[in-house]
Amino acid sequence: MDFRHEGKHEISPGDVLALRARLSAVMAIDPHARDGRYTVSSLYFDTPDGRALREKINGVSRREKFRLRYYNSDTSLVLLEKKMKIDGLCSKLQTAVPREEAMALVRGEYQAFSRDGPPLLQELYGKMATQGLRPRTVVRYTREPFIYTPGNVRVTLDYNIRAGTDCGEFLDPDGCTIPLPNNAAVLEVKWDSFLPSVIRDLVQIPGVHTGAFSKYAACRVYG
Domain 4-222, what architecture? Predict the structure, then answer.
């Protein structure tokens, strides 16, 4: 399992405009993007007492989150992801989930399915049974992704972040969502063993420091 460095910065809509111009002059657009961007829809799981949220707020050094995710409006491919963080380094596991099982997971159901599927899905089943993990919040946003081969660098600009409190609408791309009250945007920088100085300089914004912004935590403001 490979762990990477990750830096997150809460930025303003004006910063997005400035960064877009600077990054596009040096970095390539991720080939998966359409016209330079795509929409990300995620459904996060949490325990009844909000363990994932509490660990994020308290800065626990070893933590994990489970989520379902699809891109743009294409619900034909739904991914189950486990995001892990250990002492500031991040890693992610993912597997595709058959649509029938994705629909059941959205409803918080898991008992009816076989136990011979992908290991990651089985792990989620187990934690739904033993820890009470259930769907908690929908997070939807627009992402502009940039890549730079040296250092395997990926820089993303995330904005138009919206929360959905009805988890049952997750697989409806037009489901009701609510924008964050402060219209926050997020700059994320990920790299392997080193971050090239040219990229480090490009992402510098006066008055903005590396933080621990979580779109999931921010969207929990609505419940």
Answer: Alpha-Beta Barrel (3.20)
